[in-house]
């Protein structure tokens, strides 16, 4: 993928549009985060408003939850999102069915270029795809442009900088493959 196709020049109408959405999304995130876990319907309704589309009634989300765009998020059925999770950036975040995301996990689709002379001039972004039956551990961070393969596990505290193959356990900073998982262990429905 050509990373530059996701580059957006700052101080342009497109960048101002993103900033406008950040203002809306952070307000909606705060409203969602004011709900208690024993209010699942209100949480689901607030999440639907944040992402701009309906979600399955099986969504389990424990506030607080933070997003700075929201409209880029899609979630499947039987998805669990723990408390204190943060989904940031303007690129798509696609979460398949039966995904479990533990507390304080970060999905980061946005950033800035590494060269110092470009950092303030551009926003970068690339989608994150979380395939079916993935478990993302507490305080793990998934960076832009990453796909986590079906049935995989991202260990607590891992920082994922490369795609994760299906049915794989990764851990560490940066995350590396620890072992392959048995297909029945990785892909069975919970």
Secondary structure layout:
Elements: E1 8-9, H1 13-33, H2 40-51, E2 60-61, E3 65-67, E4 73-75, E5 80-81, E6 85-88, E7 93-95, E8 100-101, E9 106-108, E10 110-111, E11 122-125, E12 128-130, E13 135-136, E14 141-142, E15 147-148, E16 153-154, E17 159-160, E18 168-171, E19 176-180, H3 183-187
Parallel strand pairs: 2-5, 3-6, 4-7, 5-8, 6-9, 7-12, 8-13, 9-14, 12-15, 13-16, 14-17, 16-18
Antiparallel strand pairs: 1-11, 10-11, 18-19
Helix pairs in contact: 1-2
Describe the overall structure.
- The protein has 190 residues and is α/β, with parallel strands linked by helices.
- The protein has a single domain, classed as Hexapeptide repeat proteins (UDP N-Acetylglucosamine Acyltransferase, domain 1).
- Helices cover 20% and strands 27% of the residues.
- A seven-stranded mixed sheet has the order 2-5-8-13-16-18-19. A five-stranded parallel sheet has the order 3-6-9-14-17.
- A hairpin with a 4-residue loop joins strand 18 (168-171) and strand 19.
- Helix 1 packs antiparallel against helix 2 (40-51).
- It is globular, with a radius of gyration of 16 Å.
- 38% of the residues are buried.
- The model has no long low-confidence stretch (mean pLDDT 93).
């Amino acid at each position: 993928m050509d990373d530059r196709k996701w580059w957006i020049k700052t101080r342009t109408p497109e960048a101002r549009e993103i900033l406008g959405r950040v203002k809306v999304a952070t307000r909606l995130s705060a409203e969602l985060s004011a709900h208690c876990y024993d209010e699942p319907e209100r949480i689901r309704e607030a999440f639907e408003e944040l992402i701009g589309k309906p979600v399955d009634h099986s969504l389990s989300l424990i506030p607080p939850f933070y997003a700075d765009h929201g409209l880029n998020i899609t979630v499947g059925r039987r998805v669990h999102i723990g408390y204190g999770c943060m989904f940031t950036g303007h690129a798509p975040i696609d979460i398949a069915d039966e995904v479990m995301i533990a507390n304080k996990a970060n999905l980061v689709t946005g950033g800035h270029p590494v060269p110092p002379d470009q950092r303030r001039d551009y926003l970068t972004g690339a989608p994150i795809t979380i395939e079916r039956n993935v478990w993302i551990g507490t305080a793990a961070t998934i960076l832009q442009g990453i796909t986590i393969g079906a049935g995989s596990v991202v260990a607590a505290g891992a920082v994922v900088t490369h795609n994760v193959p299906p049915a794989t356990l990764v851990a560490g900073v940066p995350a590396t493959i620890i072992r392959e998982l048995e297909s029945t262990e990785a892909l069975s429905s919970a």
